[in-house]
């Protein structure tokens, strides 16, 4: 009975992720198409003027945010008709007020920005009309929030994409006849009207209408007042740059900056989505366990930083080519502007991956202080503009993000230093790739033709993406290590733990049996792989510990009885005598499988021997089905558990491939080693070995090339046996 809800929740989450990520991808394509077409039809000044309009409208939206949407989603009575009508009434009144304020601000805004560029005087006419979007938004149905509450992601995706398409089509049609900023305004109004109509069509609940419930109003007000202060600071931090630049730059220059920022923020959107799906869930799960929260967040943040860093570096390299090829010469300057913006976006990602941790630890004041510091950091941007124009301004914004980063790290108890080192390492890694790539591209542009420049920049931009994808995949495949297990491994490595050493080399422990903090018996395996080779193996996820972890994780899915893998990680403490650790389940006092099988044969226990052989055959078959090749696959690596079940151990040499049969040499050596060890167990009964080999071939169907390697490997093993102990055993082959 308990399986259905979990399965349903998982299905809902997967379906929601599909629609969310799919909708995001389509939205980015529509945005790119819109930008390319409108850039041909309009002029940079139109985008600059609309950037100022958007700043005002977003500012009014955020500075009057009452938290109606989150309030409806979180409220227990969020589907009650009285509650929804109260919220809708407040929303309508708010939309009407926003339109009136936009009308009141029109002439002051036109005067303020018109002193820098006379074209900004159009704000007096554009702002009141653009403000109608807020008025239309006020009449939108509360279904926008109830659908979110019910996880109706397909409808929500349609509510996002259809208005975006309408906006694009109307803007293009208008711009075809009237190439002015009014094309963008008309498209925005058409999109808002479409969203309004669709929201009411999709409303399956009670119809929206005017109503008032004092209790509901008080609940919404109590929740909304805490949203207000946060949104004020958030608006200042994310939009103040365009307000300041609107006074410093012409509308054409501001338009280029706005277009560059639109595409540079793709990295922030990817990082935000990864953070929401990788980092934030941990905050809710471990908010009462600070040590675990910090340890798990550190690991998850690594994946986000690699992905965000790869996109930032790639965009910085490719931006001039992107704008040079897809846009006309009027927008060429957006290329080098985007390169500088990549610096700002990277510092933003550093903050976005840690800013919720102080909040989860109950230190909301620290988050507010950090956001405030970032907003006041605009003074640095102003100073940077005085020194180095727009590049100086963007550099000042990046420095202000770093100031906010310091405030955030100071609010993380005991983990600020580790997050700081992580940020420094990630920044150094991004710079180590981006800087030489930019130098190379500068030389290519000076000497090569257009096609060489385009291909070179594309290759250098894409190159870091597979590396980042590999790191993210490796991080996601292995769970983060609880701090208590890391401490246990350090104690075993330094011989300070209470343990039974099962294997050692000199004074170094290789395998030990001990007790985990939760009381269960575990086996700790350790390896020492230092130097550049070891670092590269850890970076690529190809260490012996990781191989064994992957093999155990895969084979556990088929109920083969292999030990449960508990943790796999790098031991980073300076006093540790090892670098890699694998912690797995202790199966108890197991017996040697070879000796147990020989005892079955000597005692004539044919039924038990048949069951044992079936376990060996099935284990080999499943390993190949899971894509695992292990040249150390032999009978001595099997043990028999106290309950009589044979178990395969030690997957140190196992490696995963897509199709084992495409590797006949390695596959043949694996099966040859396995059959040779079986022959030694049953000798001199070579007939039994022949029958076992025939059964194995029936199940795995080796190719002639692999069979030749099998024969050579078994003959090699029997020749060595004859040389070492004088026993001459000849295998009778069934093929």
How would you sum up this structure, described in words?
The longest helix is centred in the N-terminal third of the chain and has 39 residues, at 3-41. The chain starts with a helix and ends in a 10-residue tail after the last helix. It has 28 helices and ten strands. Mean pLDDT is 81; it is low at 1-14. It has 735 residues and is of the alpha+beta class. It has a five-stranded antiparallel β-sheet with strand order 1-2-3-5-4, with helices on both faces. Strands 6-8-9 form a three-stranded antiparallel β-sheet. The protein is 71% helix and 6% strand.
Question: Features of this protein?
Answer:
28 helices, 735 residues, three-stranded antiparallel β-sheet, disordered N terminus, 6% strand, single chain, alpha+beta, five-stranded antiparallel β-sheet
Quick summary of this structure?
Helices cover 71% and strands 6% of the residues. The strands form 3 sheets. Strands 1-2-3-5-4 form a 5-stranded antiparallel β-sheet, with helices on both faces. β2 and β3 form a beta hairpin.
Helix fraction bin: over 70%
Indicate the mean pLDDT.
Answer: 81
| SS field, number of helical segments | 28
Stretches where pLDDT falls below 50 for ≥5 residues? 1-14
Secondary structure: elements and pairs:
Blueprint: H1 3-41, H2 44-63, H3 68-74, H4 81-114, H5 123-130, H6 132-138, H7 143-149, H8 153-177, H9 182-201, H10 214-248, H11 251-264, H12 266-286, H13 290-326, H14 333-352, H15 356-360, H16 364-376, H17 378-410, H18 416-447, H19 450-462, H20 464-477, H21 483-493, E1 499-505, E2 508-515, E3 521-527, H22 531-540, H23 544-556, E4 565-570, E5 580-585, E6 591-592, H24 593-603, H25 606-625, E7 628-629, E8 638-640, E9 646-648, E10 655-656, H26 664-682, H27 686-700, H28 704-725
Helix pairs in contact: 1-8, 2-5, 2-10, 2-11, 3-7, 4-5, 4-6, 4-10, 6-9, 8-9, 10-16, 10-17, 11-14, 12-13, 12-14, 13-14, 13-18, 13-19, 13-20, 14-17, 16-17, 17-18, 18-19, 25-27, 26-27, 26-28
